[in-house]
TrEMBL record:
<keyword id="KW-0325">Glycoprotein</keyword>
<dbReference type="GO" id="GO:0071555">
    <property type="term" value="P:cell wall organization"/>
</dbReference>
<keyword id="KW-0326">Glycosidase</keyword>
<dbReference type="InterPro" id="IPR011050">
    <property type="entry name" value="Pectin_lyase_fold/virulence"/>
</dbReference>
<comment type="similarity">
    <text>Belongs to the glycosyl hydrolase 28 family.</text>
</comment>
<protein>
    <recommendedName>
        <fullName>galacturonan 1,4-alpha-galacturonidase</fullName>
        <ecNumber>3.2.1.67</ecNumber>
    </recommendedName>
</protein>
<keyword id="KW-0964">Secreted</keyword>
<dbReference type="InterPro" id="IPR012334">
    <property type="entry name" value="Pectin_lyas_fold"/>
</dbReference>
<keyword id="KW-0378">Hydrolase</keyword>
<keyword id="KW-0677">Repeat</keyword>
<dbReference type="GO" id="GO:0004650">
    <property type="term" value="F:polygalacturonase activity"/>
</dbReference>
<dbReference type="Pfam" id="PF00295">
    <property type="entry name" value="Glyco_hydro_28"/>
</dbReference>
<dbReference type="GO" id="GO:0045490">
    <property type="term" value="P:pectin catabolic process"/>
</dbReference>
<dbReference type="GO" id="GO:0047911">
    <property type="term" value="F:galacturan 1,4-alpha-galacturonidase activity"/>
</dbReference>
<keyword id="KW-1015">Disulfide bond</keyword>
<comment type="function">
    <text>Specific in hydrolyzing the terminal glycosidic bond of polygalacturonic acid and oligogalacturonates.</text>
</comment>
<dbReference type="InterPro" id="IPR006626">
    <property type="entry name" value="PbH1"/>
</dbReference>
Amino acid sequence: MKNGMLVPTLKKILLGTAAILTAVGRIAAQRGCTLSAQGGDDAPQLLRAVRSCDTTRIPKGTTLNIATRMNMTGLSNKKIQLEGTLRFNPDLPYWTGNGFFIPFQTQITFWLLGGENIVLTGGGTLDGAGQQQMYSLRISQWSMVNGPEWTNLINEANGVVYNNIRITAVSNSSHNPANTDGWNVYRSNDVTIKNSVIVNGDDCVAFKPNATNVLVENLDCTGSHGISVGSLGQFPGMFDIVQNVTAHNIKMSDAQNGARIKAWAGQNVGSGIVQNITFSNFVVSNVDHPVVIDQCYMTSASECAQFPSNTFIEDIVFRNISGVSSGSTVASLNCSPDGRCTNIEVDDLNLSAPSGPPDFECSNVVLSGDSAELFPECSET
Ligand SMILES: *[C@@H]1O[C@H](CO)[C@@H](O)[C@H](O)[C@H]1NC(C)=O
Ligand SMILES: *[C@@H]1O[C@H](CO)[C@@H](O)[C@H](O)[C@H]1NC(C)=O
Ligand SMILES: *[C@@H]1O[C@H](CO)[C@@H](O)[C@H](O)[C@H]1NC(C)=O
Ligand SMILES: *[C@@H]1O[C@H](CO)[C@@H](O)[C@H](O)[C@H]1NC(C)=O
Ligand SMILES: *[C@@H]1O[C@H](CO)[C@@H](O)[C@H](O)[C@H]1NC(C)=O
Ligand SMILES: *[C@@H]1O[C@H](CO)[C@@H](O)[C@H](O)[C@H]1NC(C)=O
Ligand SMILES: *[C@@H]1O[C@H](CO)[C@@H](O)[C@H](O)[C@H]1NC(C)=O
């Protein structure tokens, strides 16, 4: 009997020791966690790991299945080493009903990542819906239901670096627009997006209201709407700021725009300021409008003349932008009347049209820089 008692006691002690060792192991392992696919929805384990580990690694060859939305906000000093793949489960009815609603421009998203000093790197793949085809399916279906945008939104974050990311989000329909933004930066400061390849159908990167101190470099964008500031000043009562943005070394192919700033004018819109934006070293190919300021966005010329934009645009540089457009207009710098654009500089523009002379359009702006003479109506001299 005594022995019989002893054995369980020993077992308990041994188990207790094992538990302590496991706990110690967990503490030691806390700094770096490596995940493997669990065969179901990997979102909960990824969320847990990112909350409790400093570095969460998804190794090469590993595909995590994300079947439920992930709220990764309030993080600080975290690293996600994505060498493998995050695959969003292609369950349209689920995502349509379960995204996080973003009131701004009524977008939804299903991965919220926010906080301070977050690094998402590793050269892996952030895979919208698994296979490219599945993603395409998602996009065309969302377009069909006239649904919300697909977007990677950097929202209310500070100190975020994206490096070595590939985004493939192709809509194969020639009829429906696909709102497949690469990145939207919104109410965020100190953001870097670099060394990435994007094949998509909407803005490659967009700087939305209150994107400040953003560096975008070494991107290869195909099929997009360009690198865009805005649209800004859309909502009455809101004041939008985009300040200190540099976008350079950008290859832009088969796109609607290259480097673009767009702000609303008219009645019942908002206001704001776009200041200190530099677009440099762009190479464009088959791009509808390689260089754009549209300060009468979504506003007729007559309404824009009567109600100029209250989103002021200042200290903008377009430098070393070369290549071939898709049509005759290679640049269109159209500001609202009444001096709403100031200190706009154009340097080393080497843009041509596929055939015939290129058009450099402009209005209501005085340009400086060595390419200003390309815009006869708007050059200082
Ligand atoms: C995300 O999580 C944070 C912190 O846990 C919470 O405050 C926030 O409301 C959540 N956001 C959404 C949209 O659920
Ligand atoms: C969509 O187009 C891409 C690129 O051409 C192709 O790889 C993919 O198979 C197409 N997907 C569908 C569903 O047709
Ligand atoms: C942008 O920041 C300014 C200054 O902090 C603030 O007044 C404004 O409401 C912000 N706008 C948005 C859209 O968040
Ligand atoms: C923009 O950069 C200047 C110069 O570094 C700095 O003084 C200013 O605070 C920055 N603006 C924002 C919104 O951080
Ligand atoms: C303009 O923005 C860049 C970052 O894009 C920053 O380095 C620079 O200091 C800013 N310049 C001014 C005058 O604010
Ligand atoms: C102009 O941009 C191209 C393409 O990014 C780059 O190779 C070249 O070095 C740039 N020229 C200058 C003078 O910076
Ligand atoms: C402008 O681009 C063409 C090719 O599109 C190139 O041949 C030419 O050297 C470039 N000019 C300058 C001044 O860089």
